[in-house]
Amino acid sequence: MITAAALSALAAACALGAWRFTTARWTSRAPRLAIALWQSLGVTWGLASIGALLAYAVTPYDRGVIHGLAAFARGRKPDATWDLWHALAMIAGLTLLAVLVAVLVTAGVQTLRARRRHRLVLSLIAREEPGIPGVRVLDHPGAAAYCVPGLRSHVVVSSGTLALLSHDELTAVLAHESAHVRERHDLVLLPFGALRRALPWSKVVRDAQAQVELLVEMAADDRARRYCSPRRLATALLRFGTAGAVPTPSGMLGVAQSQVMARVDRLIKPRPELSRSTRYGLVALSVTLTTSAPFLWALPF
Q1: Which of 20, 29, 220, 228 is 20 to 30 A distant from 89 in Cα terms?
Q2: GO MF annotations for this entry (predicted)?
Q3: CA dist 53 → 18, 189, 257 (Å)
């Protein structure tokens, strides 16, 4: 019963923390740390919520979550009465686990299929431009720039983009898209999109997904700043915004048009970085959150 109470409190703390985190103002100063904290909150909430239900379900075994589930699976007789409420908790916990796994797997499979189809289309209609090696060019008048993540990744731009941007601006955009590919931001976004499918009614989940999408763009902006002028990248973003960029295909990562001015303002007028002690504290918080739920699952009582 102690483990069930602790996991319930942890799940509630994660939900409250996520709600408060959606309005945090420091995240733009350290987007990668903010992404890590969002991931920790999401994983911990899922494990704590499932664990709280299962911990209550196996309370009659008095062996903790993992050992209690093992005893239940082997058909051992519990030490105390196993009544209807324990059975309902077991069903609810396993159902929540199945739903979260199912939506994650479904989202992953759909994304992989979309990318496979898009790679086939690119092999038929895209061309290579001698001046920008390693980039596929689509003959389309609209402004488009995106990447196809995966083992066979591609960075794709349209002919409209080549006409719209200067050489320096194009370099900035390509560096941004390459950052998405190198840092596998698609894998960062996948669980949040899956959680949105599982809990479409939750405003916290919607806000969390929107903030992580923005943080991923900011992280790619930071990576691109190593290879180009921040002002050039900001100008490119403004050009895309005013030109009416073509929507990014499903399953890809592109030049997002959401909250462009926040990103432009951040590039032109960067705020001071977080102090070292604050960064270490956020890392410690993320690690503590990530390990807390598995630790409680493993407790033998």
Answers
A1: 20
A2: metal ion binding; metalloendopeptidase activity
A3: 21, 27, 41
